[in-house]
C-alpha cells in the first residue's frame, strides 16, 4: 500500500519534470532556428538583478539598455539592429554559469558581463571554451579576463590599489595612512594588498591596517580607534559604500576628523537611505564617472537616464553604457555581420578591440592585448552633497 | 518485508538510471538546451548532498545545520590536490583520487566534531554544526596557499607574505579562493557517485547497524537498555553523512573554475535541509526528487523573469502542504485507495 503511494507520487513528479523539460526543449529549438536567419546582433548580459549586489547589476542593465536603444535609433551596428538581454546571477558563480547557458540557448553572439568578479571568473572559463567574446563592465578581479577572448572596461583590483597610492602620493593628500578593509572580499583585499605594496614608492606609510569581514560589518569603532591612535592623517577605504556610511557616522561620533579616501566601491554613498550626507563632505574617491561632470556626453547621458529611469546614474550605469559602445566600435572596426557564428565574431572582435579608441563616459579608453583598459584615473571629492570631479 | 524493501530500492535505482539514459539520449541527439546540460552536474551534487543529510536527519534523528561546511572542506581539499598535481597526473586517476581525498578529509572532520557532540542529548549537534560551518567558511576565507620550487607555502595573513620563489604559483588566494581548478566533473561521474551514495545509505539503513540507528532515534532509553552503544552508532551515521557531503563538494569544485567560500554559508545548509524535509524525512528517493525539482525549477523558469522567485516560493508551500497537511494526506489516501481497487479489479 505504502509502496504504491510512493510509486504514484514518483510518477506524478516524473510527469511534471518531463513536462517542464520538454516544454523548455521545444522553446529552445524554436529560438535557435529563428536566430539562424535573423538579421540582428544578439548581445547577452549577466549580472545580479536580485540579492544584495542588485544595485550594481540593475545599474549596468539600465546603462546598457540605454546604449542599445540609442544605437538602434541611430541605425544599429553596421546597419543591423541590436538585441540586448540581461540574465540574473544573484552574484553567485553557479547561477552565473546557468545564466550564461540560458543566453547561449537564446542565441547570444557577444557577452557583456558579468558585473561582479567571482561569477565572472566562472563564466569566463565557459566563454573561453566556447570562444565567445566577453567584455566585463565592472569585474575587477585579475582572473576575470584570463582568456584571450576577454576584455575589461574598468580598472582591475591591483590597478586601482596602485592608482590610489599614486594619487594620494602625487596630490599630497596625506602621509600616514590608516586602512580599513574587508578581508572576506576579494575586491577589497586585492586593492589593499596592492596599495600597501605601492605605498612605499610614494613615500607613504601605512600606520594601521584593520580588517573586518562580511559577518561583522556593523561596528567599526575598534578599527577607527586604532587608526586614530596610530596618528593617521588619511583613512583609505577600499570597500563598498554601505559600510563606508557606517564608518563615517562612527568616526563623527568619536570626533575623529580626518580625510577619507576610497575607490569606485564608494560610488553610491550619497544615495544610501537615511544617511546624513553632510558626514560625507570632503570624502575623496577614485571613480571614472561623476554624474555632474560638465562634458556634453555625460550631460546627455544623465538627462536621458533620468528621463528613462527617473534616477541619477552611478558609475556602473556608465560602465554598462560604455561596454556596449566598446562592442559597437570594435564590431564596426572588424566589420562583423549578424550571420557570423559567435566564434568567428569573437576572433574578429579580439583583433579589432586593440585597434579602437573609445571616447566614453568613463574616459578615453584603448585596450592592450591582455584585455586590460588603458585610461586616466580620475578622482572625485564630495562637496555640498555632490560628487565633484577633480 | 525484505522483498518490499528490495523492490522499493530497485525503483530508486531505476529512476536514476532512466534519468541518466534520457539525458544522454538528449545530449547525443543534440536536443538538450545548454542550460539543462549545464545543470546536470549541479543536480547530481545537490541530490548527493540531500541524500547524505537525510541519513543524519531522517535515520539518525539528529539535526545538522552545517552540511555546507563539510561540502566546503571536501571542495577545498580536493581542489587543492587537483591544482597541485595538475601537471603530474592524468585526468581520470587524478579526479578519482581527488574524490577520495575530499570524502576522506570531510569524513575525518565529521568524526572529530561528532566525538564530543554526539554524546550530548538534545539539539547540540545543530548548534555545533552551525558554528562549525561558519568557522570553516571564515578559515578558508583567509587561507592562502602557494607552491614554488621549494614546496608549499601556507599563510593565514595575506598572500604577499608567502614570498613565493621561482616558479611560484598561488593556489588558494584568500577570499578569491581557488581559480582554474581542472574541470573534471561530468554527468556520468556525477550519476555514478549518486548511485553509489544511494547504495551506501540504503544498504546501511537496511542493515543490522541501520536498525540500531533507527532504534536509537525512536527511543534512546529502550535502545540503551538492550545494550546498543548509542554514541558509536550515531557517530557512524554522522561520519558517513559528512563523507558523502565531501563528495558533493568535490563535484562542485571540479565543475566551476572559480571556487570561493561564499556558496558554503548556512543558507546552503538550510537549502539542503529543505530538500530533505520536503522530499520526506527518511525517504531517500524523495530527497533526490526534491533536490532535482527545487534546483532545476528556478533555472528553467528564467523565461518568467521576475516572477520565478514568486513561483519558487509558491512551489515550496504547495509541496509542503501536499506532503504534510492532514487534508492533503486524506485526499491522497482516497486517490490511492481508488487506484489500488482498480488494480485489484484488473
From TrEMBL, chain B:
Location (main, coarse): membrane
InterPro entries the UniProt entry points to: ABC_transp_permease (IPR001851), LivM-like (IPR043428)
Cellular location(s): Cell membrane
Keywords: Cell membrane, Membrane, Transmembrane, Transmembrane helix
CDD domains, sorted: TM_PBP1_LivM_like (cd06581)
Transmembrane segments: 12-33, 39-57, 64-83, 95-117, 124-143, 186-205, 270-297, 309-329
Bilayer topology: Multi-pass membrane protein
Keyword field contains Transmembrane: yes
Protein's name according to its UniProt entry: Branched-chain amino acid ABC transporter permease
Lineage of the species this protein comes from: Bacteria, Bacillati, Bacillota, Clostridia, Lachnospirales
Amino acid at each position: 500500500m505504502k509502496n504504491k503511494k510512493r510509486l504514484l507520487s514518483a510518477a506524478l513528479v516524473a510527469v511534471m519534470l518531463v513536462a517542464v523539460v520538454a516544454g523548455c526543449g521545444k522553446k529552445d529549438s524554436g529560438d535557435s532556428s529563428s536566430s539562424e536567419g535573423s538579421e540582428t546582433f544578439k548581445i547577452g548580459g549577466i549580472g545580479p538583478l536580485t540579492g544584495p549586489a542588485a544595485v550594481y547589476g540593475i545599474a549596468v542593465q539600465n546603462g546598457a539598455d540605454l546604449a542599445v536603444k540609442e544605437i538602434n535609433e541611430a541605425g544599429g551596428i553596421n546597419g543591423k539592429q541590436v538585441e540586448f538581454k540581461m540574465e540574473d546571477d544573484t552574484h553567485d558563480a553557479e547561477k552565473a554559469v546557468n545564466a550564461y547557458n540560458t543566453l547561449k540557448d537564446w542565441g547570444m553572439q557577444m557577452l557583456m558581463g558579468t558585473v561582479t568578479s567571482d561569477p565572472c571568473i566562472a563564466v569566463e572559463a565557459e566563454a573561453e571554451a566556447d570562444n565567445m567574446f566577453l567584455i566585463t563592465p565592472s569585474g575587477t578581479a585579475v582572473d576575470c579576463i584570463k582568456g584571450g577572448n576577454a576584455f575589461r572596461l574598468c580598472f582591475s583590483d591591483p590597478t586601482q590599489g596602485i592608482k590610489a597610492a599614486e594619487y594620494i602620493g602625487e596630490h599630497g593628500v596625506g602621509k600616514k595612512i590608516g586602512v580599513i578593509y574587508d578581508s572576506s572580499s576579494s575586491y577589497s583585499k586585492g586593492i589593499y594588498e596592492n596599495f600597501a605594496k605601492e605605498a612605499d614608492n610614494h613615500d607613504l606609510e601605512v600606520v594601521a591596517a584593520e580588517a573586518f569581514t562580511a559577518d561583522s560589518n556593523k561596528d567599526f569603532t575598534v578599527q577607527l580607534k586604532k587608526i586614530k591612535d596610530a596618528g593617521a592623517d588619511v583613512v583609505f577605504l577600499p570597500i563598498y559604500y554601505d559600510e563606508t556610511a557606517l564608518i563615517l557616522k562612527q568616526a563623527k561620533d568619536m570626533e575623529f576628523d580626518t580625510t577619507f579616501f576610497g575607490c569606485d566601491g564608494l560610488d553610491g554613498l550619497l544615495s544610501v537611505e537615511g544617511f546624513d550626507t553632510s558626514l560625507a563632505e570632503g570624502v575623496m574617491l577614485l571613480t571614472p564617472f561623476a554624474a555632474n561632470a560638465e562634458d556634453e556626453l555625460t550631460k546627455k547621458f544623465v538627462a536621458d537616464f533620468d528621463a528613462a529611469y527617473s534616477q541619477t546614474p552611478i558609475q556602473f550605469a556608465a560602465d554598462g553604457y560604455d561596454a556596449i559602445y566598446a562592442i559597437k566600435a570594435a564590431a564596426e572596426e572588424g566589420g562583423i555581420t549578424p550571420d557570423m557564428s559567435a566564434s568567428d565574431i569573437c576572433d574578429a572582435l579580439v583583433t579589432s578591440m586593440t585597434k579602437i579608441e573609445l571616447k566614453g563616459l568613463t574616459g578615453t579608453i584603448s585596450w592592450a592585448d591582455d584585455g586590460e583598459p588603458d585610461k586616466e584615473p580620475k578622482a572625485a571629492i564630495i562637496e555640498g552633497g555632490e560628487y565633484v570631479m577633480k | 518485508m525484505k522483498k518490499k524493501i528490495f523492490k522499493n530500492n530497485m525503483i530508486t535505482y531505476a529512476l536514476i538510471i532512466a534519468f541518466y539514459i534520457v539525458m544522454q539520449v538528449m545530449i547525443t541527439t543534440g536536443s538538450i538546451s545548454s542550460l539543462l546540460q549545464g545543470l546536470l552536474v549541479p543536480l547530481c551534487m545537490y541530490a548527493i548532498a540531500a541524500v547524505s543529510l537525510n541519513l543524519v536527519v531522517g535515520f539518525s534523528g539528529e539535526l545538522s545545520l552545517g552540511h555546507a561546511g563539510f561540502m566546503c572542506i571536501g571542495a577545498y581539499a580536493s581542489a587543492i590536490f587537483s591544482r597541485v598535481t595538475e601537471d603530474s597526473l592524468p585526468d581520470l586517476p587524478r579526479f578519482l583520487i581527488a574524490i577520495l581525498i575530499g570524502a576522506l578529509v570531510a569524513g575525518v572532520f565529521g568524526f572529530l566534531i561528532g566525538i564530543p557532540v554526539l554524546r550530548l542529548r538534545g539539539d547540540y549537534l545543530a548548534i555545533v554544526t552551525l558554528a562549525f560551518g561558519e568557522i570553516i567558511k571564515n578559515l578558508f576565507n583567509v587561507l592562502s596557499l602557494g607552491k614554488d620550487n621549494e614546496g608549499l607555502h601556507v599563510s593565514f595573513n595575506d598572500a604577499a607574505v608567502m614570498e613565493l620563489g621561482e616558479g611560484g604559483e598561488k593556489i588558494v588566494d584568500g577570499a578569491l579562493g581557488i581559480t582554474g581548478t581542472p574541470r573534471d566533473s561530468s554527468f556520468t561521474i556525477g550519476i555514478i557517485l549518486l548511485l553509489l551514495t544511494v547504495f551506501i545509505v540504503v544498504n546501511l539503513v537496511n542493515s543490522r547497524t541501520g536498525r540500531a540507528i533507527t532504534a536509537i532515534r525512536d527511543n534512546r532509553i529502550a535502545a540503551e537498555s538492550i545494550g546498543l552503544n548509542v554514541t558509536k552508532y550515531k557517530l557512524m551515521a554522522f561520519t558517513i553523512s559528512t563523507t558523502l557531503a565531501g563528495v558533493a563538494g568535490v563535484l562542485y569544485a571540479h565543475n566551476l573554475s572559480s571556487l570561493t567560500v561564499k556558496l558554503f554559508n548556512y543558507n546552503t545548509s538550510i537549502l539542503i535541509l529543505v530538500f530533505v524535509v520536503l522530499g520526506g524525512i527518511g525517504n531517500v528517493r524523495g530527497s533526490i526528487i526534491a533536490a532535482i525539482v527545487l534546483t532545476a525549477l528556478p533555472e528553467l523558469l528564467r523565461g518568467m523573469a521576475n516572477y520565478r522567485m514568486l513561483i519558487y516560493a509558491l512551489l515550496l508551500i504547495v509541496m509542503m502542504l501536499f506532503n504534510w497537511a492532514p487534508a492533503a494526506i486524506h485526499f491522497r489516501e482516497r486517490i490511492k485507495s481508488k487506484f489500488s481497487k482498480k488494480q485489484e479489479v484488473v
